[in-house]
Amino acid sequence: MRKGTGEVVEVFDGRSGGWDAEVVEAGKKKGALRVMAQVRPQRDPPDLWLLFAPIKRARTDFIVEKAAEMGAARICPVQTDFTNSERIRRDRLQAHAVEAAEQCGGTFVPEVAEIEKLVALLDHWPEDRRLMFCDEGLAGAGATLPRDAGPWAVLIGPEGGFSEGERSRLAALPQAHAVSLGPRILRADTAAVAALTLWQTTLGD
Ligand code: SAM
């Protein structure tokens, strides 16, 4: 940031709001700040998870960045039957989430979870968490989400879509609500942004 000693920056740790801090040391390799006063309260997002199947690296980075900007509280990469890439660098994705929170002036940083198998997650799906399952097969049908302010998750499939087995697991899950994002098949990264927008405009605060 090219700040020198005596200058003030705003800092946050993801849990305690925004704080003014004075630069007391600004070396090439290290610096030091003196945290002074809270200037913004902590603002946590609604209890919304984003579940998505990782795709190419740059597009996965995009999904994490946009999810953090759009107020997802937890970002969960999932392995599905047709997942394109199962290797993720969680630390890298977490760093993207921090940068996105900084960029949009947020005080909350979503946690990026370890990758987990979708079916394993569905086996232990919390009873009180609704799941907005984005299904390109429903093209044209409008979203009919229950106005429930409790915990939610949004699920986006991989480029190859969901397998029949996954579809029947989702159909059997009472907390799952299938929604369409319109009549066109969107790329997974576009679908993630569209789905979070739909959720935020319908149920977000
Ligand atoms: N299997 C599909 C195919 O090849 O025809 C494409 C899957 S799409 C690229 C990736 C994911 O984005 C889907 O699994 C779904 O979750 C979401 N998606 C894309 N378009 C959608 C739409 N119009 N409505 C709902 N979800 C959509």
Features:
10 strands, alpha/beta, binds S-adenosylmethionine, 28% helix, three-stranded antiparallel β-sheet
Lay out the secondary structure.
Elements: E1 8-12, E2 18-26, E3 31-40, E4 48-52, H1 57-69, E5 74-79, H2 90-103, E6 111-112, E7 116-117, H3 118-123, E8 130-134, E9 152-156, H4 164-172, E10 176-179, H5 188-203
Parallel strand pairs: 4-5, 4-9, 5-6, 5-7, 8-9, 8-10
Antiparallel strand pairs: 1-2, 2-3
Helix pairs in contact: 1-2, 1-5
Bound molecules: S-adenosylmethionine.
**What integer value in Å does the Rg equal?**
19 Å
| Largest sheet data | 7 strands, parallel
| Elements, N to C (H/E) | EEEEHEHEEHEEHEH
Helix-residue proportion: 25-40%
| Number of discrete helical segments | 5
State the assembly state of the protein chains: single chain
User: In the residues, how many domains can be counted?
Assistant: 2
Determine and state the CATH class of the largest domain: Alpha Beta
Q: How would you describe the shape?
A: elongated
User: Which small-molecule ligands are present, each listed once?
Assistant: S-adenosylmethionine
Organism: Palleronia pelagia
EC number: 2.1.1.193
Subcellular location: Cytoplasm
Family: Belongs to the RNA methyltransferase RsmE family.
Quick summary:
28% of the residues lie in helices and 26% in strands. It is of the alpha/beta class and 205 residues long.
